[in-house]
Design brief:
alpha+beta, 10 strands
């Protein structure tokens, strides 16, 4: 059931971000211990140093789809605190809806892209707000991994600050 929830966000754009049968592989590679967690802290409207720009919630489907499509690949992070990296974004929004991951670990770590996507989905689920135009928006939000010192942020990267992310080139 939780795997279905994870795919709910990306289903409209999954064909663009994930080719062939990679969807099953991506979901299979999510850390199984994450799938059972209900102790994830999500703070909507945080962090304070990210823009307060409402973005259509659906604009986050593409960057999360990129992360899911990476399957069992990992991204290396330097030791923290605050070792942050922009990991995926959607340049078509004008405000560049994106995913940032920050490590506060005292050692270097590698994080599965699919784990990043799982936490991004938690932010999406808890921080989207329906506006008067009848559409769902996310201003920004942050989810914290309860068993490790890293977190995922959904927010605007600002105008024209989205880079052409290629998951393979980051690994």
């Amino acid at each position: 059931m939780k795997a279905f929830t994870l795919l709910t966000l990306v289903s409209p754009i999954v064909a663009v971000a994930i080719k062939g049968s990679a969807v099953g592989k991506a979901v299979d590679s999510v850390d199984a211990s994450l799938m059972e967690r209900d102790d994830v802290t999500v703070l909507c409207g945080q962090p304070p140093d990210h823009p307060d720009t409402p973005i259509l919630a659906s604009e986050y489907a593409y960057p999360v789809g990129l992360l899911l499509g990476a399957g069992d690949k990992t991204l290396h992070f330097s030791k923290g605190p605050s070792a942050c990296r922009q990991v995926a974004c959607n340049p078509s929004t004008g405000e560049d809806a994106g995913v940032t991951v920050c490590s506060d670990e005292s050692v270097e770590i590698d994080i599965l892209y699919t784990d990043m996507a799982w936490f991004a989905q938690r932010v999406y689920d808890q921080c989207k707000v329906r506006h008067s135009d009848g559409k769902d928006y996310i201003t920004k939000g942050q989810a914290f991994n309860p068993s490790a010192k890293w977190n995922v942020i959904l927010s605007s990267f600002g105008v024209n600050n989205c880079h052409n992310y290629e998951i393979d080139s980051q690994v």
